[in-house]
Design a protein that fits this description.
The protein has 172 residues and is of the alpha+beta class. The protein is 27% helix and 31% strand.
């Protein structure tokens, strides 16, 4: 779901002849709660077409690769022009009760150069976006670290594909 949030997807909801369009950002209200009215169903999902210059990636971290709920899932859709971030949509799963955009992190990127310094600021902004829980899949600090490392990975892979990954490590 985070990749659909990052891409700006929307859903068309229907009840009989009545239809309404709702941004996926507004669909999830809370844990196991959504914006469906009584008798409504999701008729369609609209995913915007790719835009030139938009860099998109999603990463999943879980105990098993397939058929497992992720400890953290990060999704990124960033437009860079002339070395600056023009727009950014970043979403995470596993960091809150629902899949959710990282709006403070997005704000830390937009209008700034696509550099390591900007990424460092954006990683710090993740603290304001999420207060993850500890559960059987991962601890709170692990999730925070992974979320930042996934953003770092996205930056490194999109800025210079030949650079080795330099991710933070969890220390005891």
């Amino acid at each position: 779901m985070p990749i659909l949030l990052a891409l700006g997807a929307s859903v068309r909801l229907r009840r009989g002849e009545y239809c309404r369009e709702l941004a996926l950002d507004d669909f999830y209200l809370g844990y196991q709660q959504n914006a469906l009215a009584h008798g409504e169903f999701i008729e369609a999902v609209h995913i915007p077409l790719p835009r030139p210059g938009r860099r998109v990636a999603t990463y999943k971290v879980s105990k098993r690769n397939d058929q497992d709920i992720s400890a953290v899932c990060g999704a990124y859709a960033v437009v860079i022009s002339n070395g600056k971030v023009v727009s950014a949509r970043i979403a995470y799963g596993g960091m809150a009760a629902i899949p959710k955009r990282a709006r403070a992190t997005e704000a830390a990127l937009v209008g700034n150069p696509w550099t390591q310094a900007t990424i460092n600021t954006a990683i710090n902004a993740l603290e304001g976006d999420f207060q993850p829980i500890s559960d059987m899949r991962a601890g709170r600090e692990y999730r925070r670290l992974v979320a930042g490392n996934l953003l770092q990975r996205f930056y490194l892979e999109s800025a210079s594909p030949d650079l080795p990954l330099r991710l933070q490590t969890l220390t005891a």
